[in-house]
Specification:
3-stranded parallel sheet, 5 helices, Rossmann fold, alpha/beta, 3 strands, about 50% helix
Length: about 100
Amino acid sequence: MAQYFTHAGYEVVGAHNGRDALAMVQVHQPDVVLLDVHMPGMTGIDVLQQMRLRWRTIPVIMVSGSDDLELAKSSLRRGAIDYVHKPYDFEILHRCVAAATTHQ
């Protein structure tokens, strides 16, 4: 994913776990965050909740290999702007990111 978006012209910063993701957001203040639901340490849902407390306006797109409809709905209720199922179509994911960055 990082390679795809870097090649598409985006500046990409990655994190290996939820705590690192929160630290990266604090430092880099990204235009959009792609957040995996299943991450080591903290779940993506936990990270999303922390982000909404600290940075309400940064768009978050959740990505997950789970096809659990309730999980997707819960993510959206908690403040994610979209939920993309893996394996994702990069064209669709790219459209989600582009829409998120233009509607801030």
